[in-house]
Design goal:
It contains three helices and two strands, in the order H-H-E-E-H. With about 60 residues, it is an alpha+beta fold. The chain starts with a helix and ends with a helix.
Length: about 60
Amino acid sequence: MQLAVRAYMDATNKADATAMAEMMSQNTGTSSISDGSITRGWEAIRNKNDADLERLSKLVTR
């Protein structure tokens, strides 16, 4: 389990939404909770992660 968490955090730290998404089940019932909201479906989670990472990268480069 530690290896999985480390791999996910590495992908997050690298702003690699694709790697993050590849670690999740692509089952239609997949859901994610972040910042108090629930996102359902692999594609929606992938898109949200991508948008969140894009927003964060803009904050870091300021």
